[in-house]
Amino acid sequence: MPRMTEPSSQSAVGTDMDARRFAVEAARVAADTRCENIVVLELRGLSSVADYFVLATGTSDRQMSATLDRIGDFAKTVGRKAFRTADSPSATWMLADYVDVVVHVFDARARDYYDLD
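The structure corresponding to this sequence follows.
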């Protein structure tokens, strides 16, 4: 089962700690935009796709898009840029791929259907 790790004293750019901190802060941004059921999953050793997934449930496509925009704004402040984003005005699942952290924002039905957590 995915787990969160406790912080260590490392702070160098590009370390797992940076990915973890970014994932946690992205989750906080999602909470600030009133997303629900926010989860940070650690995938190191389980997946080659990313080290962390941030999962959140939005209440509307507009809110979901705004959440990804605000996470993108935060990412810029810490020197990160999304490798790829997938969002559209009528999407039920939007995501931003920051390589080691992938942020997924679902509507409730898609979150239940894909059951990533």
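Helices lie at 16-32, 61-77, 108-114.
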